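Feature request disguised as a bug report, sorry. It would help if multi-protein outputs had a clear separator. Right now it looks like this:
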Amino acid sequence: MYKFRLFVSGFGSKSSQMAIEQVRRILDANFADDYAMSIVDVVDDPACARRKFIFATPVLVKHAPPPERRVFGSFKDSKKVLKSLGLTNGN
């Protein structure tokens, strides 16, 4: 199972909602039921962001299977996101 964590700044912000929607679209299309994603609002949990060395948002982190990979910024281009995560063609 693939495990992801998405860091956003303010659940209610337009940019955070867009990032959440884009990431879910990519993960649903490529991993169906074979992934879990948690979402961390760095406004509500700044300690978690500091522990994970998150200094900008949005950030998508793939933490399983190893190695850990991160993608910062826009998630519009699904191929680019998957390649950055080391996941070509969803595997």
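(second protein starts here, but nothing in the output says so)
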Amino acid sequence: MGGGNGQKSATARARNEAKKKAEGAGGGGAAGMAARGGAQEKMAAAAAEREAMRAKNAAIKAERERKKAKEAKKMGLSNGTTGGKKKKEKGGGDLDLLASMGY
């Protein structure tokens, strides 16, 4: 295999450092439980944050719909008309008069 003492020491230090990192990352035992602690709280906080965002988006959507309905009512679209005052239909005028006279 070869290699000098310096290389062997460096390899041993790297292995030991990797071992310590793996121990701190979780695993079994009390140390692992402590490293994993708070996962439920983080998940609950994230769920609450998502729910708050959904509520905010629903409120924004409701406000948009309210404004849209208000504008539609203002324009008279809610009852199928185009809005504004309805114009009076003009009659035949002279033709009606002549017809009533028998012409």
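Even a blank line would do. Unrelated, but nice: Residues 39-75 form the longest helix (37 residues).
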